[in-house]
Design goal:
The structure holds 2 protein chains of 2 kinds. By secondary structure, chain A is α/β, with parallel strands linked by helices. Helix content of chain A is 31%, strand content 17%. Chain A contains 26 helices and 27 strands. Chain A is globular and about 70 Å long. Chain B has 2 domains: 4-190, Alpha-Beta Plaits, CATH 3.30.70.20; 195-273, Immunoglobulin-like (Sandwich), CATH 2.60.40. Chain B has helices spanning 18-27, 76-80, 106-110, 132-136, 143-147, 164-169, and strands spanning 4-9, 47-56, 59-68, 86-88, 94-96, 117-119, 124-126, 153-157, 187-190, 195-203, 208-209, 214-219, 222-227, 233-239, 242-250, 253-262, 266-273. Chain B is elongated and about 80 Å long. The chains are: A alpha/beta, B mainly beta.
C-alpha cells in the first residue's frame, strides 16, 4: 500500500533477481530510495497481479549482505579468494587492454563469450562478442546446447516459426478475450509448470485453462501435482519421449484422426511421415517407454479428437538423445491435428512488434548484424563447420566442442573467457571436472554477476557487479507483450549487463557503435514498434501487438503474414508445414523424425546397467530457486533447504534407506552425496537429483569451492553426447548411477 | 461488522509458495502494533505449505495444504494465555498481543495445529493475524490471499451472503482440518486428502486390462461399488482407516475377494480374474 512517501514503479521482470525467463509485470515500492516491497502488477496481462516466491523475495536479493557491490580484481592465485576492490575505470581499462592484446596476438575468435540460460543477456552479450569480433558466443557447459535451441530448431525447420501453448497470453483481456478459447486437451510434456519458469510460461496459466474445462495428459517420470490431476498420466522412461511421440503419430495417422483438410492444404511430406512411423506401433513404443500400450493409444486418441488441443513442453525434450528430432516429432503432433496457430492450440509466437532483443533465429541474426558477420560466424565459429544446423540456425558456438578446444587448441587456441550470467561450475556444466580443468588454463577470465559463486572463486581475474532488474533499463520482446524494464533503485556500484557491454563494445568498435547511452540503444531497437522507452514506461511498461500485426494471432498462414513475400503459407522451402523437412535434408540430416536410445541405458549398455541400475534424472525444478541461484536467500532456502535425491519408497526400502538419510550417488565419473527424500512420486527405477546445488554458506576457497565437488550432480554427467545436428542430447536426464547409504563415519 | 473466514481450495493449490513468501514480505522486519511484532528472519511459518504425496507406484496423488492460524471460535491458545494476551476481535480474528504475551511460551504449546511460533529473541509467541493491520486500512484480504495466483485461497465476510467466501463456505465440500479438535475453525478446506484404495484388474485368459468389472468395497460401516475403467483401474476415495473387503466381480469370470487392513493409501496392484469354466 503506497503512502505519501512511497513511490511505486511499474516495471517488467527479467533477470537478474528472480532469475527467470521473465515477462511478469511488477510493482516495486520505493521509500527513501530503497526498495521496501514487491507485488505483481494487476494491470499487466502477462501475470495479472500474480508473482512468484523469487519475485516476492526480491528485497532479500537486492539488499543481501553478500551481494557484489563494486568491481574487484584477483590479487592472490586463482581460487585463493583474495580480492581487491577497484574502480570501474580500472576494471574496464584492464579488460580492454587484455582483450585487445589477445585479439592482436591470437585473433578475436580466441575469446569465448559465455552466458547461462537465455534471459536478458542474449542481447548484451552477443552485441559485445560481435563488437569485439568473436563469433564464439556460447552457453558453455550446456551439453548439446540442450535448452530450447533444439526445440526452436525443430519448429523452425518444420513451419518456419515457433509456437507455444495458447493460454490467451497474446491478448490484453487474456481469458476473457473473445478471440481466444481454452484448449479442450492440454498435453504437459516433460514439465512441471508450477515450479519451472519455462520459456516465459506460467503454471497458473494452465490452472486457469483447467478451470475453463481443459483436461490434461501429463508425460513425466514423476507424479507432479498436474499429473495427479490429469486424465491420462504417462509415467515415461527418461529420454524415450521421441519414441512416444512417434507412437502417438502412428495411432493418429492409422486411425485417421488427423486433420485431413489442414494436412491436405497446408503440409508437405505426409506420406513419408506415415511410412516412417509404421514401425512405431503402440506395443513396440510401450516396450521402449514403459508406458502401457493402451494408455498410449488412449492419450493419442484423446489429444487428436479434442479441438482445440495444445502441447506445452519442457527442457527434457531437448535433453533426450537427438533432442532436435524428438522436438520435431512432437511438433508434428500439433501440425497433424491442425492445432497450429488456432485459438487454444499451439500458437505462433513472434517477437512482439518485430522488435528484436537478440537473435532467436537466422532471420534475426541477419537483420541484426548483417551478412558479413553471419559469414564470419560460419567460418570461425566452433561447431559451425561440423554441424549444418549449428552453422545455419542461431549464432551459438557448440558447447561440447568449445570445452574440448580449450584443451586441444585445435583448430585454434582459446585464450580468454568473458563469463556473464552464468555460474558454469555451480550450474550447467556437464562433466564438471573437465570444465574446471580446461577453464583454469585460460590466460584471462572476466566474470560479471550478482553474487560470489564457485565459478568466480575458481577462475575469475576481474569481477564486475551486476544490477538486478530493479536497478536497470532494458527491454523485452520475447513473444508478447513488448515491455520495458524500468529502474527503481540504485545499489552499490552495480551496473546493468547492457551498460557494461555497451561501454566495452564502444571501446572495441568505436566506429560501429553510435549510441552513447543504453536508452539510446534501446530506442533504436524499439523503432519497429513506433514507441520509445519512455513512452512505454509511462504507459505501465508494456504494449500488446496491434491487430493485424504479424506478431499477433491467429491463422497468420492464411493471411500471408508469415512469409517475407507476403503470400499465404509458411516460411519454409515448400511454403508448407514440412513433415519431411527440406531444410534438414539440405543440412545433411534425416528429414524425418526418428528415435534413438539414450547413450547409457538398460537397452544400449546392459553391462553398465548391471553395475549402475538406476537412471539419474536431474534438474527437477524448485519453486524457490532458479537453476544455481538463490541458495543464499534465507526466505527461499528455508522452503527447500537441502540438496536432496528423490528415491521411490519401494526402491529406498529395498536398499534400507530412510527418508532424511544421506546417500552416495556414484558412477564411473565420480560420486556425490545427497539427502534422501523418500517419496512415491518418482518412478522406482529412476532417481531425481535436483541440479544447481552449491552451498554459499560453506568455504569458498579451493579446494572446496562451496561444495561443488560434494553436491553438484553434473560431476556424474558426460559431455560429448550431442545429437547429429550438434544440438540436443545432453545426458542430464538419462545417466546411469547407483546409490549407497552413507555409513557411520563417512562424510 | 464483518465476520471473517477463509476457504482453501486444494483442488486449485499447485504448491507455488507465493502465500508463504507474501507473508514473509509483509511481516519480516515490520511491526504492526497492536497486532503483531516483526517476524524473525528464519524459522517462522505463519503460513506453512504441507506437501502431501501418497499412494504407491503406479498410483500416486499429490496435494499441497497451506496451513495457517485457524482463527478458531474456540481457541485453545486463548485459554492457555494469561493477562488477556490472546483475544478474539469482534470480526473473528484471533490476536496474540505482542506486548502482553511476553514470556508466555505455553501459548505456542496450546495449539494442536502447531501454527504458533516462538520468537526466541523477543520472547513472544507469534502467528498469522489475517493481516489485520491491512484489513483495518481497508484491504479486502490478507497478503497471502492477494498473492495466490490460482484463486485457491478465498477470504471475506462469512456473514455477507453475496461474498465469494460465504458461497464457498456453504458448499457441501468445505470442511475443517481436524474437526475432532472441536475448535470451530474460521479456516476451512475443500478437497482435503482422504484415504484411498485403488487397484487394477486383469483378465487371466487374455492378459488384458479388465474394463467393466464391478468392484465392491465393504467395511467400517460402508459399502461402496464402482466399475473398472478401460485400463482395468478402480479407486475408492474418502475412506476411514480400518478393515475392508474388496470384491471384484464379472459375469464371465470367477470373482475375487481381498481383505485388507488400511492405515495409509493403498494400491493393490494387478489382480487377475480367471475365466469361468
Amino acid at each position: 500500500m503506497a503512502d505519501s512517501e512511497t513511490r511505486v514503479v511499474r516495471t517488467t521482470v527479467w533477470s537478474p533477481g528472480p532469475g527467470c525467463h521473465g515477462g511478469c509485470g511488477a510493482k516495486l515500492y520505493v521509500k527513501d530510495g530503497r526498495l521496501v516491497k514487491v507485488e505483481g502488477d494487476e494491470d499487466h496481462p502477462f501475470n495479472q497481479g500474480r508473482a512468484c516466491p523469487r519475485l516476492l523475495a526480491l528485497t532479500q536479493y537486492v539488499y543481501h549482505p553478500e551481494r557484489l557491490l563494486y568491481p574487484m580484481k584477483r590479487v592472490g592465485a586463482r581460487g585463493e579468494g583474495k580480492w581487491e576492490r577497484i574502480t570501474w575505470d580500472e576494471a574496464l581499462d584492464t579488460i580492454e587492454k587484455k582483450l585487445k592484446d589477445i585479439r592482436d596476438e591470437y585473433g578475436p575468435e580466441s575469446v569465448l563469450f559465455c552466458q547461462g540460460t537465455g534471459r536478458d543477456i542474449g542481447g548484451p552479450i552477443s552485441f559485445l562478442a560481435y563488437s569485439y569480433g568473436s563469433p564464439n558466443w556460447v552457453q558453455l557447459g550446456l551439453a548439446g546446447q540442450s535448452c530450447y535451441t533444439p526445440r526452436l530448431a525443430a519448429m523452425s525447420v518444420t513451419f518456419g516459426d515457433f509456437a507455444v501453448l495458447d493460454a490467451g497470453q497474446f491478448f490484453v483481456e487474456r481469458y476473457e478475450s473473445k478471440e481466444w478459447q481454452p484448449p479442450k486437451c492440454i498435453i504437459i510434456w516433460a514439465q512441471n509448470p508450477m515450479s519451472g519458469c519455462p520459456d516465459a510460461f506460467q503454471g497458473h496459466w494452465i490452472v486457469e485453462c483447467m478451470k475453463r474445462g481443459s483436461e490434461l495428459i501429463v508425460i513425466d517420470p514423476r507424479w507432479t501435482w498436474f499429473a495427479s490431476r490429469s486424465k491420462y498420466f504417462l509415467q515415461i522412461r527418461p529420454g524415450t519421449d521421441g519414441a512416444l511421440a512417434l507412437g502417438m503419430i502412428n495411432v493418429i495417422i492409422n486411425e485417421g484422426l488427423y486433420d485431413k483438410e489442414f494436412v491436405e492444404q497446408w503440409t508437405y511430406g505426409f506420406d513419408a511421415l506415415k511410412e516412417r512411423v509404421k514401425e512405431f506401433t503402440p506395443e513396440r513404443v510401450s516396450a521402449i517407454t514403459w508406458v502401457p500400450a493402451d494408455l498410449i493409444i488412449a492419450a493419442a486418441r484423446f489429444y487428436a479428437s479434442s479441438k482445440p488441443a495444445a502441447i506445452h513442453w519442457g527442457l527434457p525434450v531437448d535433453q533426450c538423445p537427438e533432442g532436435t528430432t524428438v522436438a520435431q516429432a512432437i511438433t508434428h503432433l500439433w501440425c497433424l491435428t491442425g492445432n497450429l496457430d488456432v485459438p487454444g492450440g499451439n500458437v505462433i509466437a513472434r517477437a512482439s512488434h518485430n522488435v528484436t532483443t537478440y537473435p532467436f533465429d537466422s532471420h534475426q541474426l541477419l537483420s541484426l548484424y548483417g551478412e558479413e558477420l553471419v559469414k564470419k560466424l560460419s567460418e570461425k565459429r566452433i561447431g559451425a563447420q561440423r554441424y549444418g544446423m549449428v552453422r545455419n540456425f542461431r549464432g551459438w558456438a557448440q558447447p561440447d566442442m568449445a570445452i574440448e578446444q580449450i584443451l586441444t587448441g585445435d583448430p585454434y587456441p582459446i585464450k580468454a573467457a568473458w563469463i556473464q550470467t552464468t555460474n558454469i561450475l555451480g550450474g550447467q556444466a556437464a562433466d564438471l571436472r573437465k570444465h574446471y580443468e580446461a577453464l583454469k588454463k585460460l590466460d584471462f577470465i572476466v566474470a560479471a554477476d550478482t553474487f560470489m559463486n564457485p565459478t568466480i572463486m575458481a577462475l575469475a581475474d576481474i569481477v564486475l557487479p551486476v544490477a538486478t532488474f530493479a536497478e536497470k533499463e532494458s527491454f523485452r520482446s520475447w513473444w508478447a507483450p513488448l515491455s520495458v524494464v524500468v529502474p527503481a533503485v540504485k545499489v552499490g556500484e552495480c551496473r546493468s549487463d547492457w551498460e557494461i557491454n555497451l561501454e566495452l563494445a564502444r571501446r572495441f568498435n568505436p566506429e560501429g557503435i553510435p549510441w552513447k547511452t543504453v536508452k539510446e540503444l534501446i530506442n533504436e531497437r524499439l523503432k519497429p514498434s513506433g514507441k520509445t522507452f519512455d513512452e512505454l514506461a509511462a504507459q505501465g511498461s508494456w504494449e500488446m501487438p496491434p491487430e493485424g500485426h504479424p506478431s499477433r494471432p491467429y491463422r497468420r498462414y492464411e493471411k500471408g503474414l508469415l512469409r517475407p513475400d507476403g503470400k499465404p503459407g509458411f516460411r519454409t522451402p515448400t511454403g508448407k508445414v514440412e513433415f519431411y523437412s527440406k531444410t534438414l535434408e539440405e543440412w545433411g540430416l534425416d528429414p524425418l523424425p526418428y528415435y534413438e536410445e539414450p547413450p547409457e541405458s538398460e537397452v544400449r549398455t546392459p553391462e553398465l546397467f548391471k553395475k549402475y541400475p538406476l537412471i539419474m534424472a536431474t534438474g527437477r525444478r524448485s519453486p524457490v530457486y532458479f537453476h544455481a541461484e538463490h541458495r543464499m536467500i534465507p526466505w527461499l532456502r528455508e522452503i527447500d533447504p537441502d540438496p536432496i535425491i528423490e528415491i521411490n519408497t519401494s526402491t529406498a526400502k529395498e536398499m534400507g534407506i530412510e527418508d532424511g538419510e544421506w546417500v552416495w550417488i556414484e558412477n564411473d565419473r565420480g560420486r556425490i552425496k545427497r539427502k534422501a527424500r523418500v517419496t512415491p512420486i518418482i518412478h522406482p527405477k529412476v532417481v531425481m537429483v535436483p541440479h544447481g546445488w552449491w552451498l554459499p554458506e560453506t568455504e569458498g576457497k579451493e579446494p572446496y569451492l562451496y561444495g561443488i565437488w560434494e553436491y553438484n550432480c553434473n560431476l556424474l554427467i558426460p559431455i560429448g553426447t550431442q545429437g547429429k545436428s550438434g544440438f540436443g542430447g545432453g545426458a542430464y536426464k538419462t545417466t546411469l548411477c547407483r546409490i549407497r547409504k552413507m555409513e557411520k563415519g563417512e562424510v | 461488522m464483518p465476520r471473517y473466514a477463509m476457504v482453501i481450495d486444494l483442488d486449485k493449490c499447485n504448491g507455488c509458495y507465493n502465500c508463504f513468501l507474501a507473508c514473509r514480505d509483509e511481516h519480516y522486519g515490520n511491526d504492526y502494533p497492536p497486532y503483531s511484532a516483526a517476524q524473525p528472519l528464519r524459522g517462522h511459518f505463519w503460513l506453512r505449505v504441507i506437501e502431501k504425496e501418497r499412494g504407491q507406484y503406479p498410483r500416486v496423488k499429490v496435494a499441497y495444504i497451506p496451513k495457517l492460524c485457524m482463527h478458531c471460535d474456540n481457541p485453545p491458545c486463548q485459554q492457555a494465555a494469561v493477562d488477556g494476551a490472546v483475544y478474539k476481535r469482534p470480526d473473528g480474528i484471533v490476536i496474540i498481543d505482542p506486548e502482553k504475551s511476553l514470556e508466555q511460551r505455553q501459548i505456542v504449546d496450546a495449539c494442536p495445529h502447531r501454527v504458533i511460533f516462538w520468537n526466541e529473541e523477543k520472547k513472544i509467541p507469534q502467528k498469522c493475524t489475517f493481516c489485520a493491520h491491512l484489513l483495518d486500512k481497508g484491504w479486502q484480504e490478507p497478503r497471502c490471499v492477494e498473492a495466490c495466483p490460482t484463486g485457491a485461497l478465498v477470504f471475506g465476510d462469512a456473514d455477507d451472503p453475496g461474498s465469494k467466501v460465504s458461497k464457498v463456505l456453504h458448499s457441501a465440500r468445505a470442511e475443517e482440518l481436524r474437526p475432532e479438535y472441536g475448535l470451530k475453525s474460521r479456516v476451512k478446506y475443500i478437497g482435503l486428502p482422504r484415504l484411498f484404495i485403488a487397484g487394477t484388474v486383469i483378465f487371466g485368459d487374455t492378459d488384458e486390462c479388465a474394463g467393466g468389472v464391478t468392484v465392491v468395497l465393504r467395511g467400517e460401516g460402508v459399502e461402496l461399488s464402482t466399475k473398472t475403467n478401460n485400463f482395468g483401474d478402480f479407486e475408492f476415495e474418502g475412506l476411514a482407516p480400518g478393515s475392508y473387503e474388496v470384491l471384484m466381480q464379472h459375469t464371465q469370470y470367477q470373482s475375487r475377494s481381498i481383505n485388507v487392513i488400511v492405515k495409509t493409501d493403498l494400491y493393490l496392484g494387478e489382480n487377475v480374474l480367471e475365466r469361468m469354466a
